[in-house]
User: Which sequence fits this backbone?
């Protein structure tokens, strides 16, 4: 035998053994749900039920939406699916979903996102926090969004909306088509900076371009396609050993530095602003005693890194989700002229009663606006999946199925919102689905754009207010239609965890005199 053939022989044998081992391993992995006696969607090697995602044919959100719809079509209450070889428990029955999110939350308290304090300080934010520390911090933060604080914020939002309209006017005079998401992101960055940090970021005036640029890093790095895959598939211990980082160094340094300056500046101020920054700084103060969530112990003060991580998540979560929701709403209003006209009429009628002033009380009277936003978040829940990790073994009530500790659970709000049983003709944009009468016909947890239960979005109120103020400003000033540049039908970006439109949303705006 020549040495070349021996070499070939070794390589072929190696690959044969490797293939055989992998096939056997996959067979073992893919028997997980069968052995548990749970219905499952037939997986294929190597990506399980996630081939379309891994081959770049659909987003994370659409993958789980479609699996949900498939399970529902089969008439099952829940099913097992596989993300590569990893088993994922997928409830689709409303009662089971309610239990996981709300009544049996204690078994499903964590999002299961990777955290490594030492190499990734900004990853220690509340969304990623777990257990006792999460409970403590979570119990302290809702007072940043009370009705009284929102009233004050609405005044700031209105001021910034004037700057927003000035910028839009400039764009409208010089352009036929407006890339609306870019301006809305600047509007929400300026609003959040001002309301939560007392900082005038002036991104609408193009004064702080690095902030705009670095702000996108959260969604492009931490919640990117690659990090989703790695964090879902590789055990946390191994990621820590490998010093895996969710954030890029430049963005991390930029924000740590920015929050350091804000902190230092606040310490020189004598007047309290009573905003989110003051609240978090107070929690850093080691000279004070902070009660824990139960009220019978004390809570350790926040370190600077923890302070910065919370500032960061509130900034990021607030600007991107709200500007995307506004963008999707304007896209639908541009495509549905009668809805737009009806909404503008409501805005004008209500404001007439309030001397043309967009006050807190006036906005509260705008019922149709509420319905339009509800329907936008039904069709485009910008945060489209409610992932959970099982923290202690759980027997699904009424079944013999046990969800084991550390299992990955996927509740897809995008799937629920496209379920024809709750929302017939789900592609249709129809705010009438959200009249009080129609809402009452649907079960609890059939509309969950902000999640539900103890992990429900902390900034829901703030988000809804900035969405409203932005939409009111635009609709009072412009007729909105879709530009010829707009690529139809609108599709979701295939990368990233959150919903974003593929390409830009291009609008044509015509000034109303
Ligand atoms: C349209 C706007 C928004 C939507 C659709 C949205 C949606 C969500 C969703 C689905 C979750 C996860 C809930 C769960 O796992 O059950 C979440 C969590 C969170 N959101 Fe929002 N959000 C929005 C705006 C905001 C704003 C404006 C802020 C901050 C001011 C914010 C801060 C947070 C935080 C801190 C969490 C983590 C809560 C925790 O884990 O305890 N969100 N949001």
Assistant:
């Amino acid at each position: 035998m020549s040495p070349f053939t021996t070499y070939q022989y070794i390589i072929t044998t190696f690959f044969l053994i490797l293939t055989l081992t992998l096939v056997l391993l996959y067979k073992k992995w893919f028997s997980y749900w069968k052995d548990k006696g749970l219905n499952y969607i037939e997986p294929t090697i190597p990506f399980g039920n996630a081939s379309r995602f891994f081959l770049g044919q659909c987003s994370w959100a659409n993958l789980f939406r479609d699996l949900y719809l498939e399970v529902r079509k089969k008439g099952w209450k829940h099913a097992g699916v596989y993300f590569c070889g990893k088993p994922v428990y997928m409830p689709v029955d409303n009662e089971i979903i309610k239990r996981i999110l709300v009544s049996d939350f204690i078994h499903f308290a964590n999002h299961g996102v990777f955290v490594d304090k030492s190499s990734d300080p900004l990853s220690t934010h509340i969304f990623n926090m777990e257990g006792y520390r999460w409970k403590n911090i979570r119990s302290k933060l809702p007072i940043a969004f009370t009705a009284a604080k929102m009233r004050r914020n609405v005044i700031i939002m209105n001021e910034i909306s004037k700057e927003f309209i000035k910028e839009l006017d400039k764009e409208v005079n010089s352009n036929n088509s407006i890339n609306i998401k870019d301006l809305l992101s600047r509007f929400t960055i300026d609003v959040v900076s001002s309301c939560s940090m007392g900082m005038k970021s002036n991104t609408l005036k193009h004064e702080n371009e690095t902030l705009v640029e670095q702000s996108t890093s959260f969604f492009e790095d931490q919640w990117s396609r690659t990090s989703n895959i790695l964090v879902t598939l590789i055990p946390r211990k191994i990621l820590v050993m490998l010093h895996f980082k969710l954030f890029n160094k430049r963005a991390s340094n930029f924000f740590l530095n920015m929050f350091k300056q804000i902190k230092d500046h606040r310490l020189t101020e004598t007047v309290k602003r009573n905003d989110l920054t003051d609240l978090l700084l107070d929690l850093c103060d080691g000279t004070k005693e902070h009660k824990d969530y139960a009220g019978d112990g004390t809570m350790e003060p926040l370190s600077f890194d923890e302070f910065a991580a919370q500032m960061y998540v509130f900034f990021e979560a607030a600007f991107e989700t709200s500007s995307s929701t506004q963008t999707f709403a304007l896209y639908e209003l541009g495509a549905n002229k009668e809805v737009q006209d009806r909404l503008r009429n409501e805005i004008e009628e209500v404001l007439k009663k309030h001397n043309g002033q967009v006050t807190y009380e006036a906005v509260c009277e705008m019922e149709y606006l509420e319905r339009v936003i509800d329907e936008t978040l039904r069709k485009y829940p910008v945060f489209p999946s409610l992932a959970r990790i099982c923290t202690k073994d759980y027997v699904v009530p009424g079944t013999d199925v046990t969800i084991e500790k550390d299992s990955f659970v996927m509740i897809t709000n995008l799937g629920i919102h496209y379920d024809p049983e709750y929302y017939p003709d789900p592609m249709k944009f129809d705010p009438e689905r959200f009249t009080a009468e129609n809402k009452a016909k649907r079960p609890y947890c059939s509309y969950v754009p902000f999640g539900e239960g103890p992990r429900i979005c902390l900034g829901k109120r703030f988000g809804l207010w900035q969405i409203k103020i932005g939409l009111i400003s635009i609709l009072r000033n412009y007729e909105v239609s879709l530009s010829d540049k707009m690529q139809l039908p609108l599709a979701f970006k295939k990368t990233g965890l959150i919903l974003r439109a593929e390409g830009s949303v291009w609008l044509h705006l015509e000034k109303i005199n």
About this structure: Strands lie at 78-83, 86-91, 178-179, 386-389, 394-395, 402-403, 408-411, 478-482, 506-511. The radius of gyration is 25 Å. Residues 126-127, 138, 313-314, 317-318, 321-322, 325, 377, 382-383, 386, 449-451, 455-459, 462-463 surround protoporphyrin IX containing FE (CB under 6 Å). The chain has a mean pLDDT of 93.
